């Protein structure tokens, strides 16, 4: 039975009051009376293009600050001067709109000529032209005389050889080419030609003679006839499930290639060609269906969304400390290539789930956990990582909204210097680094606590609460005490989750009835919770009378602590 003590207000430096909520409605997130000021918004981004030396110096400074586990006043690392641009063509600058249209023209021409992915169709050769067509124009009378003479000679020759169809067509085409002032002469010649042709025509069977003239195709002249004979349907090419030039989603994809090449149209078009060729050679559609097993499911996985709605992908390199897994993945070239194919498959499946409509979410946030990651001696892992980076950068442009590196160890400084030359300035601008002591705080800047896995300081896990149940965050100052109150007006079952990132604080809970003659009920005696103990405390209390549940957090340390909590109520009858 819970201990009982006389009603009294619990001592506290700060009190957080959660207003009562009617049971018939879903309780909103608890309102906090005493809160720390919200985080200062990030400053306006500087232009992406900076001098190479300045970019590296800023990057190294940022890493150094993040890796050092210094005093509590250390600031959370900021993003590397990057802000995601609009995917709507209407929002672009004029020169960028022009680049999009120029790229679409190149793509349309390539589709018409079947030049993408090695599917080029052999083009029909145009019929040979007479050498006379290349000669310089002659006076009108001379041209008419020569045309009539040539027409007569060709017609008689064709009549002698019995080439019936050609002689009539030749006469017709030649006569149409004659100028108006020689029309009468041409008509006379035509009559002669038709008479000669009729005299040498062989007898046709009755079926052919009775055929209706309406079946005959209309006469098409010159270039029009050549165009009709050479007409080929445009090639249909899709990438990530989106047909090129089919709708406005295609513009979003073309924008990715343009931005990856600083809106240089020819370079963007070449990149698109190379990507389509690479996908065909790799057999991307077959690769997506391939079964690689589940050995690497803890190495790379998708979990939740950031505050802007981007899917979040976690890369946990520390899993390769498992020697058996490491050998199974990197021991020879074949296994390393298999790892690359698996990594490409994972990204391809993730990309196909994105929204490519203008204004939609078509990028991913990458979280790279370097805790216990194999060191510089693991040559095989470094090689595979470098190859994967190059492949993904060349063939999946502008799919990363932000790269966050957490639990960064000291040796990563050297690795970063080796990898940086292979990355564009635009890619480096998306990087954020945080040492072990600032990893959770850094994640919370971009991802809500209810979306962050428990292993990284959040509350996302299987259980009573889901990822849609919002979490309240409070900063507990050094050597201070916080209390959080949940008022209740009628009988119900109250459930809550509490977590202090890093713990090393005292936690207690009690129910204080509203009645003057009632007694306080101790739900959880105040006790110190160490960093190695339960990551999340989940408690519940069945309330039988009006009152309030009071949670007390005492931080005896000299560092600030992040307090996370959420609650829900259910009617007592349920």
UniProtKB/TrEMBL annotation:
Q: Name one GO molecular function term.
A: lipid binding
Q: Where in the cell is it found?
A: Cytoplasm; Membrane
Comp. bias (Basic and acidic residues)? 46-63, 128-155, 209-226
Q: Does the keyword Cytoplasm apply?
A: yes
| Record bears the keyword Transmembrane helix | no
Keyword field: Cell cycle, Cell division, Cytoplasm, Lipid-binding, Membrane, Transport
GO annotations under biological process? cell division
Region of interest (Disordered), residue spans: 30-89, 115-179, 197-227
InterPro entries found in the cross-reference section? CRAL-TRIO_dom (IPR001251), CRAL-TRIO_dom_sf (IPR036865), CRAL/TRIO_N_dom (IPR011074), CRAL/TRIO_N_dom_sf (IPR036273), GOLD_dom (IPR009038), GOLD_dom_sf (IPR036598), PATL (IPR044834), PATL1-6_C_GOLD (IPR056794)
Task: Return the Gene3D superfamilies for the record.
Answer: CRAL-TRIO lipid binding domain, GOLD domain, N-terminal domain of phosphatidylinositol transfer protein sec14p
Q: Locate the CRAL-TRIO domain: which residues?
A: 289-464
Instruction: Enumerate the spans annotated as GOLD domain.
Output: 468-569
- Secretion signal: which residues? none
Q: Which GO terms describe its cellular component?
A: cytoplasm; membrane
Q: Which family does it belong to?
A: Belongs to the patellin family.
Stored PANTHER family: CELLULAR RETINALDEHYDE-BINDING_TRIPLE FUNCTION DOMAIN-CONTAINING PROTEIN, PATELLIN-1
Its protein name is Patellin-3
Query: Gene name, please?
Result: LOC107896868
């Amino acid at each position: 039975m819970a201990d009982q003590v006389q009603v009294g207000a619990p001592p506290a430096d700060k009190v957080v009051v959660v207003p009562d909520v009617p049971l018939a409605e879903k309780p909103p997130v608890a309102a906090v009376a005493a809160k720390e000021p919200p985080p200062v918004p990030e400053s306006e981004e500087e232009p992406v293009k900076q001098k190479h030396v300045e970019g590296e110096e800023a990057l190294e400074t940022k890493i150094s600050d993040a890796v050092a586990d210094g005093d509590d006043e250390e600031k959370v690392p900021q993003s590397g001067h990057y802000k995601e641009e609009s995917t709507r063509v209407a929002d672009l600058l004029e020169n960028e709109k022009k680049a999009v249209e120029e790229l679409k023209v190149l793509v349309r021409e390539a589709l018409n000529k079947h030049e993408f992915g090695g599917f080029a169709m052999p083009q029909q050769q145009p019929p040979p032209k007479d050498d006379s067509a290349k000669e310089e124009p002659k006076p009108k009378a001379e041209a008419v005389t020569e045309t009539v003479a040539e027409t007569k000679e060709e017609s008689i020759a064709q009549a002698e050889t019995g080439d019936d169809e050609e002689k009539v067509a030749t006469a017709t085409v030649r006569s149409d080419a004659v100028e108006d002032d020689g029309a009468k002469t041409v008509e006379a010649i035509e009559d002669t030609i038709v008479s000669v042709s009729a005299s040498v025509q062989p007898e046709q069977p009755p079926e052919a003679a009775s055929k209706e003239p309406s079946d005959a195709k209309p006469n098409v002249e010159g270039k029009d006839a050549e165009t009709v004979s050479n007409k080929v349907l445009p090639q249909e090419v899709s990438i990530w499930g989106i047909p090129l030039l089919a709708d406005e989603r295609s513009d979003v994809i073309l924008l990715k290639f343009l931005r990856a090449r600083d809106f240089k149209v020819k370079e963007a078009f070449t990149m698109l060609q190379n990507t389509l060729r690479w996908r065909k050679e790799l057999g991307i559609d077959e690769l997506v269906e391939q079964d690689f097993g589940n050995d690497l499911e803890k190495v790379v996985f998708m979990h939740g969304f950031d505050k802007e709605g981007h899917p979040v992908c976690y890369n946990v390199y520390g899993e390769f400390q498992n020697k058996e897994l490491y050998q199974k993945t990197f021991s020879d070239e074949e296994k390393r290539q298999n790892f690359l194919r698996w990594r490409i498959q994972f990204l391809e499946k993730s990309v196909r789930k994105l929204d490519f409509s203008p204004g939609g979410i078509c990028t991913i946030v990458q979280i790279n956990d370097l805790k216990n990651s194999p060191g510089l001696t693991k040559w095989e892992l470094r090689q595979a990582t470098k190859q994967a980076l190059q492949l993904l950068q060349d063939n999946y442009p502008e799919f990363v909204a932000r790269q966050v590196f957490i639990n960064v160890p000291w040796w990563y400084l050297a690795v970063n210097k080796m990898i940086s030359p292979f990355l564009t300035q635009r890619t480096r601008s998306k990087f954020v680094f945080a040492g072990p002591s600032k990893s959770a705080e850094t994640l919370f800047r971009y991802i809500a606590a209810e979306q962050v896995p428990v292993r990284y300081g959040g509350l996302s896990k299987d259980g009573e609460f889901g990822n849609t149940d919002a979490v309240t965050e409070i900063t507990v100052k050094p050597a201070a005490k916080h209390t959080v109150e949940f008022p209740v007006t009628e009988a119900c079952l109250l459930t809550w989750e509490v977590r202090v990132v890093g713990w090393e604080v005292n936690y207690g809970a009690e129910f204080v009835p509203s009645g003057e003659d009632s007694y306080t009920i101790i739900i959880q005696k105040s006790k110190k919770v160490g960093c190695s103990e339960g990551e999340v405390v989940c408690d519940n209390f069945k309330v039988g009378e009006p009152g309030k549940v009071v949670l007390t957090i005492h931080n005896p340390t000299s560092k600030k602590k992040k307090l996370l909590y959420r609650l829900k109520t259910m009617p007592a009858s349920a």
